[in-house]
Structures are given as C-alpha cells and as structure tokens.
Amino acid sequence: MWRSSALLVALFARAAMLLRWRRRATSAPNVRQLAGTFHDALIKLAELNAVIIAAVDGVAAGGGLGLALAADIQLASDRSMFLTSYESLGLTPDSGTSFLLPRSIGISQARQMSATSMRLDATFAAGIGLVHKVVRPDELPDAASELASRLAARPQLHMSQTRTLFWGADSGEYRRHLDAERDAISDAARTPQVAALIREVAARAVRSRAARRKRTGRHLS
Predict the structure, then answer these.
(1) How far is the C-alpha of 183 from the C-alpha of 171, rounded, in Å?
(2) What is the C-alpha separation between 34 and 37, in angstroms, rounded?
C-alpha cells in the first residue's frame, strides 16, 4: 500500500463521462455549478501533501486534460490523445487548463492548441513536455504503480514540502484563476448560439448512444 507521499490518479477517459457532462451542462447555471464543483476538487488536489501521478489511457479532453495537468507527473499509453475540446462547444477553457497548460508546454503552444482545437497524440505530447513517459496500454498500470511505490518509499516530509514549495507561489493565483474560468465559461454558455450548440451536441450524443445500444442489444451506462 502506498504511503501518503504518493497518490495515483488513473484517467481512463470514456465517452460516457463526456455524455453525462453534456446532459447536465444544458444551461449557464448548470455549467457554472459543474465548473465550480470540479474546481473545488482541483483545489483539494493542489493542497494535498502528496505527489500526484496521472495515468492516462484514452482521450484526456476538457476536464480530463485539466485533471491530468493538475498531477505532478503524467504517464500515458501510446493510444492516448490530449485536447482542450471546449472550442467545439463554443466555450472558454475550464478546469485549470488556461492556467496549467501554458506552464506545462509554453504560452505559444498552449494558445495554438486551444485556438485550433489541436489533438496531440501521446508521443507528440511527450515531446513538448505535456507527458513525462509513454508506454504501451498493457504496461501503463504497472508503470504507474511502480513509480508510485518508488516515490512513496522516499522521506514523506521531503516529498510533501517540495510539492508545497512548487505550488506555494501560485496557489492563491490558481484559485483566483479557477474562479475566472468559472465566470467565463458560464458567461459563454449564456449566449444563445452556444446554448443551442450545447443542447444540439447533447441530443446528438444521446441519439448516438441509443443507436449503439440498439445495435449491441445491451445497456450502455
């Protein structure tokens, strides 16, 4: 069992997660509430006295990208993809991506990634510093577990204090930035064009899943 100096966060992105978000994010108040709830969780992660490892296997988009960026170390399978995704809904960046992404890959590449809806494969993401190590999907659980165990074996005070020092200068700014992201995304969701687009995408996703359920003859959660 890992000690408190290392925490593993596994990110296995699924279409169902995005679908549930789209079902709920049908109005500006809902978007604001969802953003605020997720941001509270991100603050808790930032305040943990533990090194956080993200193990990404799949598509880290939107909030998934923000969660991956909130980790101290990012591992990914070679089939993983990274994108901001908000642009397709006419929304502004959220989940800390506009704060953490420039600090990870540089302001120029972060702006380009957001403006052009660029999809990064794991190898490219590793090349620009977004991912620390890329492995095969079947190797990812063991790679993440081994790293977490190795970090947990180190002196805990050293690990927690070092993380606090890295976050210390930016923690208050991070919280304020998350609040600004929440305000911006809820404002964007109020515009008629974006609100209609969110409803359209949500309805399309529901229809698509219903069609797949009918084809497979099984329930998709």
Answers:
(1) 19
(2) 5
Q: Whose structure tokens read 């296997």?
A: 57
Write down the catalytic residue from 39, 57, 72, 183: 39
Check if 158 is active-site.
Answer: no
- Please report, as a single letter, which amino acid is at residue 98: S
Give the whole-angstrom CA distance, residue 111 versus residue 101. Answer: 9
Q: Which two tokens stand for residue 138?
A: 């079947």
pLDDT along the chain (221 residues), means of 10: 44 45 61 87 86 91 91 95 86 92 96 92 97 96 92 80 76 90 90 80 74 69 49
Cα–Cα distance, 21 to 10 (Å, whole number): 19
- Catalytic annotation present for 78: no
How far is residue 185's CA from residue 86's CA, in Å, rounded to a whole number? 9
Catalytic residue among 94, 121, 177, 219: 94
Its pTM surpasses 0.85: no
What structural domains does the chain harbor? 6-216 (3.90.226.10)
Q: What is the CA radius of gyration of the chain?
A: 18
